[in-house]
Design brief:
By secondary structure, this protein is of the alpha/beta class. It contains 12 helices and 11 strands. The C terminus is likely disordered.
Length: 343
Amino acid sequence: MKTKIFSIILIFLSVGFSVVLCEALLRLTSHTPWIYERKNANGPTTHELDPVLGWKNKEGKYVVPAYDSSGQDIHITFLDQGQRLTKAKETASNKEVVIVGGSVTQGWAINDNETYPWKIQKQYPSLNVLNYGTGGYGSYQSLLVLEKELPRLISPITVLYGFIQHHEVRNVSSGEWLKELSRHSRGDLVFLPYVTFEENNGLVRHAPERYLALPFRESSATIALIERAYMKIKTKNRNYKKRLVTEQVLLEMNRITEQYGARFVLALLVVDQETKSHYMSFCQTHNIRYMDCAYPLTPEMKVVGEGHPNGRMNSLWAECIANALGEQAEIQKWSNQGMQPTR
């Protein structure tokens, strides 16, 4: 009996020593426990969970502390359906311009009146510009927004999608992107819907998933490494088809937009030259309207202390988009005539 008890104790001690040794070796090789990254820990929570979209903008008025001592507090307003405020006063127009995209379109880290959708609304005062841009969204979540919102709108005439290159990764829910979302989540679980492509089934939709979160992740580098390894294995093949998946989502966005009598326009905002050339060619092949509004995101075009595009860059985008859209009367004819690709 004593021998059996001694053997059990020895096993536990061996396991414990192995765990401690593994942890020490990982720490020595720069591995760390799970760490949350918060650029503005004192800022308000502006999003809420959604069973289909994963998350959405939360209705309300928010004041976000400045990201740098030289900056000022940021004022953000989200309306009842999650769209960001685009005008000081409501318009009576039933001609709607719908804008979707991620944080760049939402206007992360800048005031309501600094976003490019606000400035487009100012350019076209008798149209109703609706900004559904949401931080962290990719093409697929933007498609889900269109499927949800277009049926309830009065008379959508244009859908503008603000595209950045990183949306390709978001669409397929890569392990690294899930990790990034979770790191900035303030401890909440972030669920991300995604799509894959299969030769026989085409575009396959998947329910929202989250990054693996094990107990003791914030105190153990070993646990954090297990999480990373699991997610890498689970998502390892997704990135290979991220561009093909994105193309299929764009076709779906174009299809549903036309289904509701509007015209779909792809606005290229933050892309490298190779990506821009690819999607311009893709749009031309599939008769999708596009705008080349990609400018260098230099330091003077970023929010100091944060890194997202500032009001100055948004002004360039608004000018580029307005020049491509043309006169207001011309926009309202798109449902019948269409618009030619620009630049």
